[in-house]
Amino acid sequence: MFNKVKKILILEDDLRTLTILMQILEEFKNSLNSIAVTVFSESVKAQNFLEKEKDFDLIFLDYYGIDEDFHKAVFENKIDPKKIIAISSLREKNLEAEDKGVLRTVEKDFINLEDFKIKLKQEIKEML
User: Fold this and answer.
1) In the CATH scheme, what is the code of domain 6-127?
2) Span of 31-35, 59-63, 111-115 with lowest mean pLDDT
3) Which residues, other chains included, contact 66 with Cβ-Cβ below 8 Å and sequence gap of 6+?
4) DSSP three-state, residue 76
5) Contacts of 113 (CB under 8 A, 6+ apart)
6) Are strands 104-105 and 58-61 parallel, antiparallel or unpaired?
7) How far, in Å, are 41, 46, 60, 68 from residue 128 at the CA level?
8) What is the pTM of this model?
């Protein structure tokens, strides 16, 4: 049976977080068969991209990009919030995402990155 390529969008400007996300996705790669990952660290570029491409299986959404906030890029383009995992280090930004319909949030914990990684893995497993 043919398995669809899982399309994943990462909107993240922190290199440590991006590295963790890529490591986790690498671990899932064998069970998913095929994944395509798109990454943006600048929200203006993400905004332009999302105006054309909206079909993702999973989106990791940080609040801040290098230039502006990523929430604007995502929510103005009416991306399905059920496909999003909000991953801000600021609890209030994850709560803002929840107010916009996002069901899954993981607070970035730069002091305990291993705990952050474990929580992310669980959310990814449940979504994919």
Assistant:
1) 3.40.50.2300
2) 31-35
3) 13, 41, 42, 43
4) helix
5) 16, 20
6) unpaired
7) 23, 23, 13, 29
8) 0.91
Burial of residue 71, with CB atoms counted within 10 A of its CB: 0-12 exposed, 13-18 middle, 19 or more buried: buried
| pLDDT for res 25 | 92
Q: Which contiguous run of DSSP H or E holds residue 104? A: strand 104-105
- What are the structure tokens assigned to 16, written together? 């440590």
Q: Quick one: what percent of the chain has pLDDT higher than 90? A: 63
**What is the residue extent of each domain of the chain?**
6-127
The first and second tokens of residue 96, run together, are 């803002």
Query: Which tokens go with 121?
Result: 């893995």
Q: Where are the alpha helices (DSSP H) in the chain?
A: 15-32, 43-50, 70-76, 91-99, 113-127
